[in-house]
Amino acid sequence: MPADLRSTLSSFYARTATAALTLSLCLGCTKESITADMSRADAAKWGEKVIDCSVPGIGIETPRFMIKSDVTADGKRDVIVSLECMTGNSSSFSHVTVLDGASPADKPKILGTLVRMPKTQDYRQALKTGAKARKIKVKGNMITVVADQWRYMDSTACPSRKYVQIFTVEEGKISAQKASHLDVENCW
To answer: Which DSSP helix (H) or strand (E) runs through 66?
Structure first.
C-alpha cells in the first residue's frame, strides 16, 4: 500500500474513532435525559443522597433490584430500585423506591417508597422496622415485594419472618395493601 494512502486511511480511522468515542460518551448526558434511562451506577449515586450509610461506613451497594416498567401508564418506563447499605455481612436492610420515569434523570421524582431503610443506626431498633427485599415483581400497575424481616432474637444471618406486600399505582400515587406475614421456624 502506498505511503500516502496509508496516511490518509490512518487519519480517517483516527477521526472516525474519536467521533464515535465522543458520540458514545455523550449519548446519555443530555439535559433531556430522563429517569427511565438511569443506569445502575446512576441509581447508586442517587441513593447516596437518599439513604444514610455512614454507620456501616462502606457506602451504597449497587442496586440489588432495578426494574424498569411503566407502572404509571404514561408511556414512560418508571424505575423501581432497591438500595442497600453495605455492611460486610448479610444483615443489611433494603430501601425500595419507585421513581417516575418521565422525570429528569438529574432530579428523579419519587412516586413512593415501598420498603424504607431504618432511620435508626441502633441495630436492635433497626430490626423492628427494617426489611430486606428478596423479590420484586411488576405486572401492569401492581408491584409485589417479598422481603425478610428480623425479629428481636434472630441472628443477623437468619431472619425468621417473611412478608409479601402488594402496591398499586393509580394517577401517580402508590397505595399499599396490608402485608401478609409468615413466621419461619428454621431459616436454614
So the answer is: strand 65-69
